[in-house]
Amino acid sequence: MRRSHVFSVSTSLLVAANLLIPVAILIFATGFFPYKPFLPGLAEYEDLEYGSPPAAPFDRLVFMVVDALRSDFVYLEGSGFEFTQSLIANGVAIPFTAHATSPTITMPRIKAMTTGSTPSFLDAILSFDEADTSSTLAVQDTWLAQMKAKDTGKLIMYGDDTWLKLFPGTFDRAEGTTSFFVSDFTEVDNNVTRHIADELRNDDWNTMVLHYLGLDHIGHKTGPRGPNMIPKQREMDGIVRQIYEAMETQPHLQSTLLVFCGDHGMNDAGNHGASSPGETSAALVFVSPKLKTVSQGIKTPADYVEDFQYYSVVEQSDLAPTLAALLGFPIPKNSLGSFIVEFLPFWPDVHDKLQILMRNARQILSIVTATLTSSPGGRDPNCNQPGSASEQLVCEWRGISNSAASAATEIKADDWVTDMSRWLSTAQTMMSSMASNYDMDRLLAGGVAAGVATIAAMAATAMSLQGSIVSLGPFALITILYGVMMFASSYVEEEQHFWYWATSAWLFYLALRRVPKTTFRSLLMAAAGLGMMRLVRGWNQTGQKFAGEPDIVTIFLTTNPSLLWTLVLATYAMVSWELFNGLEGVPSVVSGSVVVGVVTSALSFKLAFTNEDAPELVVGFARTVTSMLNGPSLLTRARAVFTGIGLMSLYPIYLLAVQPSKSSKAQVLRTLHHLYTLLALTQSRTTNAPLFLLFQGIYLFLGKLGLDPVETTTSSLLLQFTSFFAMGGSNAISGVDLSSAYNGVGEFNIVAVGALTFVSNWAAPVWWTSASNLLLLQHGQSARTRSGGGGVFKQHVALLTVFVSISLGFVMAACTVLRTHLFIWTVFSPKYLYSMAWSLGQHLVVNIGVGGLLYWLGCG
């Protein structure tokens, strides 16, 4: 009775701990990722003592965004933008590098470009939800709202439907295209281009927004140097030519300004979201025949630089005040942008120059005074000894403002412009880097909830522990060391090394400890395990510091496609053999036909997918097989694979319901495990497929060691994280792989795309959850009763819950303590988002939900 009571109490504590984890995550997130406040209403011109607003040189705007257009794509030798480079050389286009602050995701970048403000990091999450309508700029002041208020023409938009979500009801004519269907390189852009010719002939609009997605999709699929990249650049360059030639020849377009830019860049893997130089450096080009009067030809192609900062570097938020002056409307109220001074020659009158910069400065000053609690001048109204940086900023403003009158009458205008530009830049930097409006009560409450979850999980572990508490030493050391790491940005960025070295040391320790009597055998087993682990570690370079360095994939596989496909075929052969053995109760002719049919379907999809994704890898025999299997679309092939896996899984599920012995059920669970392996291979990049051969080898290695439950749980934890990073994962948003998110999906569906995205990115950790269950079942089968087997799994879950709650608490503490840190939005905030995915997706859904179901079926 007492044992039953203890079992019930520990179960209750464990349930409570796991219920508290999502509660803690939600509470902390609502305090850490709030929407920033903004000044409501539209800005209006204020009367200043220096005269009326200067006349605008342009009356019409074409705003063309090429998603992920990194600066070097336009400016370097070998670029497909040859016509654009000729415009720069002739002085009718002025180039810049636009700095995109993290998160380098489309939605926050559009917000920055249209409002001139610094968006909330929460927009990075909302960008992944195509159905979201909560993040809208409908009631905020933007240059789109100002152009609409001018009432000189209609607003039209073609391209990424993020614009339609952000600006509902703003556009008079529009057609959106989904931004996450990354397998589409052509139609997604053709749907934009087909409208351009007609719209250029129309004269009823004053703003046309075009947002092309194909180049970004190519980056996600093949990287910045993929075979489709230069042809896509030439296609976009042709659009620039089409618009520019219309501006030259059509009278109603003579005062049109073309702004041609990227919303962000991309890293060497073709992804974005973080803060590497490639991701934050976007091209920005202003194009118009009128620019010939204010600019000189610039050298093009540009000389190569490592940090992607070509020509003058401006902030994306600088677009708002610059477009305001060039098109003749007030600067949006929430803008922190600084007017780009290269355009000041449009106004030869000194008074006009003063007007533009003074209005820009007063607009930013209004945000400073609205944000800070002190009044202008702070505690030192005479500015003798200004205290805070904000007080010093206001005092500098007074000096520059007082000198404006003399600058207008004396030959001091250039010096005054320099001083004002410097002040604007300082104000912009200070206000953009100010801490978010954190809700400290919620941050602390979330941390407390995580702490309570930890206490409950530790109590449940103590009650369910089968063995000595000393056996928890390695697990406790891993947990504590990992938690402490969360306070160092460099360790968070390069987290993979912790898991690589910890796993290597653990495998060596197991080999020596579990085979103590035969030294040679123990060393041989250790060498085999460590050898496979070394290959896993070197497969993909990830993190930030070494992301572009050589690895096994780049050195051996992409340069030797024959070796790649040999390993891929070996992986699929291994899965086929395991599945064939798992259907031993079925006649060989039937089971062989079924296995061959499903695996051939999966391999056919992989070949066709790779032929679209990276055709340079499909050569020789692979090219011959691809040609032989040519026919169905990728959508049809993917659906065939998923259907085949689903139908094939019905038989082992049926056997689970009728099998009398636990050993038979264990065999059935192994069959389901290998069916999942086939699914994981379908959702993984081709170059990562051979990793599952190594995972299988490590699994067999662990299976021969006869691990106890604590050792199995420790191994599971280490290998889940190790395999995630080995597959190319990271703690940056740019690490999210969307290349397989639409396999088998014809149109956006948040549930299907979300599930496929998770499986794509967590394919290996989920594999190790299943493999760990098989190892646990080996131990659980020795239990004489159902409760004994259940106790093994409960201890497993309790230990994993301890790790999740402690690590989550450390991440929350790091984000709270370091909330004013320089890297809070580039390192620690993305880490918190990944902690959410690990805690909610991998731990609660996979380890407990799926793992618990499979273990219960195996023990039943």
3D structure, described in words:
The protein has 3 domains: 2-27 and 442-735 and 763-859, no CATH class; 59-346, Alkaline Phosphatase, subunit A; 353-435, no CATH class. With 860 residues, it is mainly α. The protein contains 34 helices and 8 strands. Mean pLDDT is 85; it is low at 128-134, 373-380 and 783-788. It has an 8-stranded mixed β-sheet with strand order 4-3-5-1-6-7-2-8, sandwiched between helices. Helix 32 runs parallel beside helix 34 (824-859). Strand 3, helix 7 and strand 4 form a beta-alpha-beta unit.
Output the structural class.
Answer: mainly alpha
CA(first)-CA(last) distance = 23 Å
Beta-strand percentage? 5-15%
The general outline is globular
Number of strands: 8
Quaternary organization: single chain
List keywords for this structure.
6% strand; transferase; 8 strands; 34 helices; transmembrane helix; GPI ethanolamine phosphate transferase 2; 860 residues; membrane; eight-stranded mixed beta sheet; Alkaline Phosphatase, subunit A; mainly alpha; GPI-anchor biosynthesis
Structure summarized in a few sentences:
By secondary structure, this protein is mainly α.
